[in-house]
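To: structure subgroup
Subject: Chain for Friday's discussion

All,

I'm putting the inputs and outputs inline so they're searchable in the archive.
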Amino acid sequence: TLLENHRNVLREGVKFHLDAAYGLDAITPGSLDTVHELEPNEQFMSLRDGFDPQPPVAANLKNAMQHLLSQALASEFPAAPLFEAEIKTGNLKKVHAVVSEAAQSADGRAIVEKTLRPLIRQIANPLMLGEMDHDATHFVIGQHWKNHFSRKSAESPGPISVGQLRDWIDLPQPLGLPKDAENLVILIYAEQTNRTFLRHNVAVEGSLTSLPDELVLQEQRLPSESDWAIVIERGGHIFAETLSSLIKGSTVASMSASVKRKASEARAACRAFCEKLKDRLVKFGIDPGSANRFQTATATTTLLETINGSDTDQVVSLLVSARVATSAPEMGECLRSASRLTGIVDGTNWEIFDAIGKLTDDRKTQAEQIRAAIGKALQVDENVTALGPVLKESQLQAVRLLTETRVPLPPDPDDEGDAPPIPPVIKPPQSKRRVVASDSRDNLSLADAESLLGKLEQEAQKGRSVKLNISWIVEEGGAAQ
């Protein structure tokens, strides 16, 4: 215990002498070597011109060092804001959300949750983004940076880059802001002035963590509330764009770029489907102009072609003025399924539907029903009747109709004339043979048919019986379908 007490006394004495050596306390005679004694104010010196550090007022060396660093930073960044909260990305994102809402509101105000009010006041106020009073429930956006950057841009005509804005932030005196805080200032300025970020004339999305210096700010003309409501409805249904009712320059630019890209990707498929659908409607004796599916495909193709051939900044006006037929949701379904539907149309055996259309016996009524179902499916929109399942089922029905065994009708006793008697139908005996394989093929060439018959002949040589149902179509003249 005596040794510990002695050690403590020595430690406190050494700390006292160190404080005295650095000018934090009075010098006790005989405590310091006077050979290298310093003059007053010589303990702290700076190699930076214009900075003359003053002896710190502190109770210990740690606080003294912090005081000296504060002097150094204040000298290098004389306009540095005095933040009361930590400047980290999570806090800046919360501030950005509130200030952005205020920037887009008509009165420049945004209500702030009670738990967020201290954070907004501790960051947004010193950063000169606006005011959040102690007893206030709303944040009020300021005009400092908007006015400051407007003056600087007037002095330097031409495009404004993010790098230029960073330089202007530190004028007339450096603020020494972290990069994320600089990004926050620039993003809010862009929203206040309805500007978007471009890289090589292509709109890009800026964020607190990603805002390269080479991006250029371009003023974005905003649509009216009524036009934006139409864009939200049509952009959502036709192009699957989820849009906010809050009109922001960045939102308009991002939506326009996305819609133009989707139009470029889908226009070829929609045009091909429109052409093939028209051809099939005509061959079924249906006026294309009266078919909802064709009207929808035509309107969708026209819109995609128009947007693809126009500038990005015209997308909003094109969506507003577009002809919608029969509805925006149907046009969206056409855009998304055009490629698939084109494949379905190409893969359907339309010749078999032509064949049943020529039947004149008792199968005529059933054939007409099959063709009527196809005609209806071709006319209505995809959301009303899916085309693929109808064509598949109709094709199966047509095959069965053409290949089923026909039973002749008995003669009408009222018929006159010497018509030859109809031979009786002899039913084959019931067979108990087991079916080992069955299949059907459509649209075969002669070579394919010969190959298939050769395989069936091999089956017959194994002691098996082979039964066939055969139908054929012989065509001449005109282009092959």
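Points worth raising on Friday:
The beta strands are 109-111, 130-131, 138-141, 160-161, 195-199, 202-204, 216-219.
The chain has a mean pLDDT of 86.

D.
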